[in-house]
Amino acid sequence: MASSSAPSTEEIRQPEGLSAAYDSDVVTYLELLSFMKTDQIIPFKSINDVIIPALLNNMFKGKRNSDNDIPPVQQLFDKVQRDLVDINGTFKRLKEWEDRLDTLTKSLILYDWEGFCSIERTKSAEDLQKALSDINKMVSDLKVHTSSAQSFNPSPSNSDLSIPGNEIPNPRLSENFSDTDFFISFQARYDSLNWEQRRCLLYLSIFPESSIIRKKVLTYLWIGEGFIDSTTTGDGLFEQLATKGFIEPVEEKGIGDFKSFKINPLIRLALITLARHADFFDFDSDDNPTVDFTRSSRACLLKEGSLQRLSTQANHEKLEVLFNVGESYLDFPSECFSKMKRIVVLHLGNWSCSGDNIIEAEGAALLEGLSDVRLLKYLSLNGISGITELPGSICKPDCDLMILDLKACWNLDKLPNEIGSLTKLTHLDMSGCYLIDSMPKGLASLQDIQVLKGFVIGSPRTKGQCTLSDLEKLEKLRKLGLYANRKTTGEKGELNCLSNFKVLRILTISWAIVSSESKSGKGVVHKILANAKKHNRAVQTHEAPASPKSIESHTIQMYSASPSRTTSVTSLPASLEKVDLRCWPLSRMPNWMQPWKLKSLKKLYIRGGSISDLQILQPEEYDSPLWTVKILRLKFLRELKMDWPALTTMFPTLEYLEKVNCPELLSFPPGEVLRLGEIRSEAGTSR
């Protein structure tokens, strides 16, 4: 999405302030090269006053002298010119920020420190307090200004983000926050975004302070509201928000590569102020979003009776978004949903990264009211226990549902056959639904499906069940998550069809099976669920340590298979960019993991299991196999034996390595997370 502040094609003329000297080629390439001396740092002023204008001048000349009127060529000229103009303005603001930093620092250095240090004990406490107050003000101003460098690129209109007074005000005590330099600067940056980007950003206001938020949740919300059209667009927007300082990525593996983020408290306060002013959500006096949608079309569920207040409100038909921020028990009547004729986003499940929020519901009856809802695009039941099946009545051909998140619905043991009627469905997540042991045939009818997670393979099939080969005709399927049991690599070779999934980009396979108890009629998942509630935490089988004792303690049984029964998969799709193998039972890598064919593979995750060697047995016509992987995660591999030189040789393009509970890895640099670029740089410096 292009920024609304970017100049249009008509606005791009000879850059303002560019003297005729540049037209006369006074600034030559030799003069530009003089700034590239290895012992010289190019100052902001030189970049802004000399280099960027010269580059702009060359672009204008190139465009003027070009005889090519093809629109894409002219658009590229315009884009480069716009970007150079933006860069020019950014460096000017950086210079202003530098000047302000210089002023603040000098005032602190030039303070009468000799007089302060000579204050005698006999002097009054008022004198000491006054001196400390003066110092505190200067240090606070400097702290706010330096913090602004971490939270923002300098603002388009005001680079001074300092807040008047001796300290940053408490969000709940400041009555004049919207008048501070920080907020004014923030709003200028906010106003530089386009309309959709601003609406997306306002959604961050509803999450509690200091919380870690999953990108996927926001992406689905934005798609449901129609602010963006795809997860790809969402990834691009998140990268912009991180670059501009609106959000802080958590565990960033590379530029734009992160799954969760957090928000600076001051930025959150600024967003709440803007969201309240725009009636985007309603907030109480403690800056918490409320269930009230009198002025807005959006409401949030919190603790302490928010469901009751929601059911008693009028005009449910105007409600478009209902988001569960903190309600742990969903007991409101189903007819409440039947009144929400305009609802497009219904997020009842868990949104946090920790998965600590245990949410319960009294069966699936509460969902029956959705049978008459046609505009719903996003439904999340993530982490809700007590729902045993999804009502077939909500699967209507004329329903707009695009995203259905059923992840970690512990009691869910059945999907309706009518699910194939959801013809607009693009995302279906059933991962963590360990009681589901068969797939309805209707899944093969989801022609628009792009993401399908939690698909069970290897179980005995009946005529009405969906097999993996039934999904081959789904031409848009780019992300697939599978649960496999011991029969998966047997004679039937159900995995063998994977090579036919030509557009698949991400593949996850979990080789873990769940034991059952015939006497009680309940499987081990019920025990896991009870344990999760008891300890107020979610249990994920793929994160369990791979040692036999720990596996038995979670009653997850790892199976073993002979090598002859693992050869059914001839190869994986060459289009794969990420492969995640969980609890692979054999000691060697799967022979269908062929680096000489997986040239697009950039991410490889191996978690749990019995693997002891990453070597691949390749055909004689291929050289020693080298991976193109950039991100490698090795977790809970207690038997994996490898030394550091062997790994870096096998993965020559590796940039990021995560190793957790892999005790047999030898001579590796310390730390669970290794960034290979930094290690190589340090090695070069040491030489």
Quick recap:
The protein is α/β, with parallel strands linked by helices. It has 17 helices and 26 strands. It comes from Camellia sinensis var. sinensis.
Query: Overall mean pLDDT score?
Result: 77
CATH topology of the domain at 281-477: Leucine-rich repeat, LRR (right-handed beta-alpha superhelix)
CATH class of the domain at 281-477: Alpha Beta
Q: How many individual helices?
A: 17
How large is the radius of gyration? 29 Å
Q: What spatial form do the alpha-carbon principal axes imply?
A: globular
Distance between the termini: 45 Å
Proportion of residues in helical segments: 25-40%
User: How many strand elements?
Assistant: 26
Strand arrangement across the biggest beta sheet: 4-5-7-9-11-12-13-14-15-20-21-22-24-26
CATH superfamily membership of the domain at 281-477: Ribonuclease Inhibitor
CATH architecture of the domain at 281-477: Alpha-Beta Horseshoe
- Report the sheet with the most strands, covering strand number, pairing sense and barrel closure: 14 strands, mixed
Low-confidence region ranges: 1-28, 150-169, 513-568
**Beta-strand share of residues:** 5-15%
Q: Give the class from helix and strand content and strand pairing.
A: alpha/beta
Domain Disease resistance R13L4/SHOC-2-like LRR: 344-523
Pfam families: LRR_14
Keywords: Plant defense, Repeat
Organism: Camellia sinensis var. sinensis
